[in-house]
Amino acid sequence: MKKNTLEEQVHPFNFLQKKFFLSTTTDEIAFLPQMPGEQISFFLTQAFTKKKKIILQLNQLKNQAHLTEATGYIRCTPFKRSQIVLEDPLTHMTYLILPNDIRHIRLP
After folding, report:
1. How would you label 62-78 residue by residue, b for 16+ Cβ within 10 Å and e otherwise?
2. pLDDT tens for residues 18-38?
3. Domains in the chain, please, with CATH?
């Protein structure tokens, strides 16, 4: 039987990082160019009508030092607001994103 020692401590959420969360460090995400607003609007409309999975690269926020990407399917927004609801069925995550925060859109 193996003893648990202090040298073998494992963080209790390590398995979640490997399985569920996206990597969000700038070194691992390619810094893609800012798309024009018309192109973003067109791609979002196409992804919604054709039910395509997309990857959204978001602009850096003031309190973040890294880029963020979200993957999923666009769903209709409640109350006709200008937010985009992006759902990822694999990780069961739902993102509320403003169109102005989108930097780049691509297919997985």
Report:
1. eeeeebbbbbbebeeee
2. 444 444 444 577 888 899 999
3. 35-108 (2.30.30.100)
